[in-house]
């Protein structure tokens, strides 16, 4: 029997997570035979990362939707601010994308501006954004059977002593006028789990079904379902409890299960897309960040939706759809295209030609230096997500620094406060050297005893590798790879480590995940750049 025939006759499965690494808050959508997953991107461009599937088993990256400052301006954006919880829907021949741009969460003020953009195709062109309300984040559209469209959102309450998560509100949206109309009203106050957010509304079996996230986005996370015969409620909560949660099950591979959205196949099968985390130790740090998983949902007529055991499974039955694998992503990016490949993201500014240059030198990525590692207006970091416990990024760089203000190298990165960085720079005596610098919660550590004199070599190989809780750097001066004799803590590049609560108030959140990147600084503004010949990403154990 041929492999192709066997694949069609054997029961296939979906292995979780379907999107590994930093891919939280999934919004899933089917249009015809195509399935799309949109996920949060926070301070990274392109905003709203998008994946595409034909069978829910195989997914390919399409890059991002919000690619221009016209749609989003992240200059000065704080760590884990920016785009939260996008919502993707299809109505009236158009894709609709709603996203929240959260400017602050300090002292109980969220400052979340919600936007809507539309496009005739998933690849665009996307319309100029419509400013919706700023009542709260996690906004989502619901297109009712009568043709009306409604905006749902978490309703924030800044007042001291009040519940900051003030319930789920709804307000009508007029597509013709491109604005909200009427008054917003609260339709659901949540359960005792609290922190009610991430609303998605569905019409099925004569009911309105409200799916929300509760319990916070960490270990107490859950998916709550409530239903009503009327749009405005009252909504009755499923008496059986959460549709999905990992609470009380530290033995599960997939933790933090919550923030879900539903999709139905043409054959009538239901699936839930939701976020998960995979800690390195029980309830420990999740270096991979929050990832996207799928669960099979049983939904008998007249009954509530159910997931077996109410817990996230590592493997589930796939729908009865023709298998549709995609070509594997090449391990090496030779930078032969005029734009960055879909695997790459850029920090706080889109990849425009003034600093990301793929045209001036054939098969090279030229990165013009930006601000310091702490800078939030014009950093020059091109990075990709860490997708496995064991993985590495390797590159070759050409760089001619003038002084200590100019640096170029490779990094294991989480945010402005947490990173490890191996870079080329110019020493005071004129030598070009490799130096190592780490930052843990804003506190920098230098390793002067590990400084390497490059001997004036024009092309230097650099490598950063993740080996579980250990991060290592290597270099090649043309005579083979050598490893820096130090093992660094990769677990500081995690949501858990980044989060800080001071006097009961969130001083910092951690919502992203670890990245591997190519980083260039020109702190003195002298116009220096670095050329990267290629970048190779591999997963799995290797003799680093």
UniProtKB/TrEMBL annotation:
Gene3D superfamilies cross-referenced by the UniProt entry: 2.60.120.200, Glycosyl hydrolase domain, family 43
Example of a GO MF term: hydrolase activity, hydrolyzing O-glycosyl compounds
Keywords, comma-separated and alphabetical: Glycosidase, Hydrolase
Domain of life: Bacteria
BP-aspect Gene Ontology terms: carbohydrate metabolic process
Family: Belongs to the glycosyl hydrolase 43 family.
Protein name: Glycoside hydrolase 43 family protein
Organism name: Micromonospora endophytica
């Amino acid at each position: 029997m041929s492999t192709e025939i066997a694949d069609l006759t054997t029961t296939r499965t979906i292995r979780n997570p379907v999107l590994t690494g930093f891919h939280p808050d999934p919004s899933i959508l089917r249009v015809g035979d195509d399935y799309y997953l949109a996920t949060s991107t926070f301070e990274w461009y392109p905003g709203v990362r998008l994946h595409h599937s034909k069978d829910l088993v195989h997914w390919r990256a399409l890059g991002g939707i919000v690619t221009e400052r016209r749609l989003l301006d992240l200059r000065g954006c704080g760590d884990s601010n920016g785009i939260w919880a996008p919502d993707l829907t299809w109505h009236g021949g158009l894709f609709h994308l709603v996203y929240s741009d959260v400017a602050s969460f300090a002292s109980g003020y969220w400052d979340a501006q919600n936007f809507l953009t539309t496009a005739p195709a998933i690849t665009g062109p996307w319309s100029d954004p419509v400013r919706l309300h700023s009542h709260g984040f996690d906004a989502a559209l619901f297109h009712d059977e009568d043709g009306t469209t409604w905006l749902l959102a978490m309703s924030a309450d800044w007042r001291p002593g009040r519940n900051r998560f003030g319930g789920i509100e709804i307000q009508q949206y007029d597509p013709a006028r491109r604005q909200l109309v009427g008054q917003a009203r609260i339709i659901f106050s949540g359960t005792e789990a609290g922190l009610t957010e991430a609303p998605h509304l569905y019409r099925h079996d004569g009911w309105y079904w409200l799916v929300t996230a509760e319990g916070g986005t960490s270990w107490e996370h859950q998916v709550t379902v409530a239903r009503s015969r009327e749009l405005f409620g009252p909504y009755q909560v499923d008496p059986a409890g959460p549709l999905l949660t990992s609470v009380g099950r530290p033995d599960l591979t997939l933790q933090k299960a919550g923030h879900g959205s539903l999709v139905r196949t043409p054959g009538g099968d239901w699936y839930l897309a939701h976020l998960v985390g995979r800690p390195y130790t029980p309830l420990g740090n999740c270096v991979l960040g929050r990832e996207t998983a799928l669960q099979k949902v049983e939904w008998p007529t007249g009954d509530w939706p159910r997931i077996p055991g109410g817990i996230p499974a590592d493997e589930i039955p796939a729908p009865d759809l023709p298998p549709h694998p995609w070509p594997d992503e090449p391990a090496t990016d030779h930078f032969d295209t005029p734009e960055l490949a879909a695997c790459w993201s850029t920090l706080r500014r889109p990849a425009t030609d003034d600093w990301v240059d793929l045209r001036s030198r054939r098969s090279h990525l030229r990165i013009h230096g930006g601000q310091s590692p702490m800078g939030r207006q014009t950093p020059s970091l091109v990075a990709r997500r860490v997708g496995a416990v064991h993985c590495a990024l390797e590159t070759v760089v050409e760089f001619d620094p003038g002084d200590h203000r100019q640096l170029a190298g490779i990094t294991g990165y989480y945010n402005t406060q947490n990173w490890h960085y191996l870079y080329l720079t110019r020493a005071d005596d004129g030598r070009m050297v490799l130096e190592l610098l780490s930052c843990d919660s804003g506190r920098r550590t230098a390793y002067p005893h590990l400084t390497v004199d490059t001997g004036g070599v024009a092309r230097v190989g650099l490598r950063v590798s993740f080996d579980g809780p250990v991060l290592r750097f290597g270099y090649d001066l043309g005579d083979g790879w050598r490893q820096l004799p130090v093992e660094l803590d990769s677990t500081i590049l995690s949501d858990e480590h980044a989060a800080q609560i001071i006097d009961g108030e969130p001083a910092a959140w951690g919502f992203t995940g670890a990245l591997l990147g190519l980083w260039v600084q020109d702190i003195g503004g002298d116009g220096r750049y670095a050329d990267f010949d290629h970048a190779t990403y591999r997963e799995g154990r290797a003799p680093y």
